[in-house]
Predict the 3D structure of the following.
Amino acid sequence: MTEEQKIDQRVFDLYDEYCHGRMDRREFLARAAAITIGGVSALWMAQALLPRYAEAQTISFTDPRMNGTYVNYPSPGGTSGEMRGYLVQPAGEGPFPSVLVIHENRGLNPHIEDVARRAAVAGFLALAPDGLSPVGGYPGNDDDGRELQRGLNPGELDQDMINSARFLKEHELSNGQLGATGFCWGGGMTNRLAVELGSDLQAGVPFYGAAAPTAGVANIEAAMLIIYAGTDARINSMWPEYESALQANGVDYDMEMYEGTLHGFHNNSTPRYNEPAANLAWNRTIGFWRRHLAS
């Protein structure tokens, strides 16, 4: 039996509320502790769901197939006018097709940096912006990161991501072909980015993100690979209207629903991770980018 199967669905539901900022860690743990299964408190289940980033790293910072560094760049109209991100280039001369990797609702944590390295070893120039950089950067833990991100002006944070995409597209190591992906909040941002960038974005892959505003879908010119978790009712409820708008506007899209998976199934730092689904979704993401971002 997998760790995912051992954890009670009620605890997973509480964790989803906690991850989306609808309760703090203390309340999450207390409510989980109040659930009993066979006379035993479910507190251990809640504790097991908290991320373990060091154990989940798949690509080392020193992997010879890539080189990562932190970069600063202007961000007019954003939170502070400046941004910082983790730029990872594949080994070799370049130029390379480029992809923006957008974090969840807690800033640039180690998991998202690892995803950027995965993109780089697959041959893409990857930038993972830290939306919290104007307020000191990711603080080293997700709880404080979530609070910091909640305190930002949403429109300014969106602009920071848009500016990050443009910085990457115009980078000297980029071939000018731009893709994007993101997870949870970053998945929703990927959808919004497709609206805002129009023809400047070639391929978007949102993972379980909020749909783009229907009124803006006509602006999407990127090919879209839209990924959902099977048991993610809140996000999945947005799909019918989004699909209708995509169809009405002739957008090139594919949707993949990974049945039986939880919101966050790609994140291998918690037991919500579903390895077969995550590997399949990531391999299809890489293939999708290779098809649409060739120079």
Q: What stands out?
A: The beta strands are 36-37, 40-41, 66-74, 82-90, 96-102, 125-129, 174-183, 203-207, 223-231, 253-262. Residues 1-5 have pLDDT under 50 and may be disordered.
